[in-house]
Amino acid sequence: MVGRLGAHAMMPTFTLMEPSDIQEDFHLSSLSSMDELPKISVDDPAIISLKVELDMNNEELSGRVVKFLRRSLKAGIAPFYRQIIATPIAKEDRIWSV
Fold first, then answer.
1. d(CA 26, CA 40)
2. pLDDT value of residue 91
């Protein structure tokens, strides 16, 4: 799934990576563990949209890697990666969660 929150051009696109894609990705090949990646919460709006689109729950998403593609003036399109963690970022009464 490739997603973009809203239709704004400055929003990066993102995909949920499969384990086989992670092994083949040039940028991730130097990592000894996926735990070295920066983290992103299951309550992040991008991850919530993945959860709804793919009909997955927090446990299924926890530990997976999301690849974001950001436009850059110098690099063209710059990928960056985040590991999904099951830690919430807000109180239980948040309105944006599913």
1. 21
2. 62
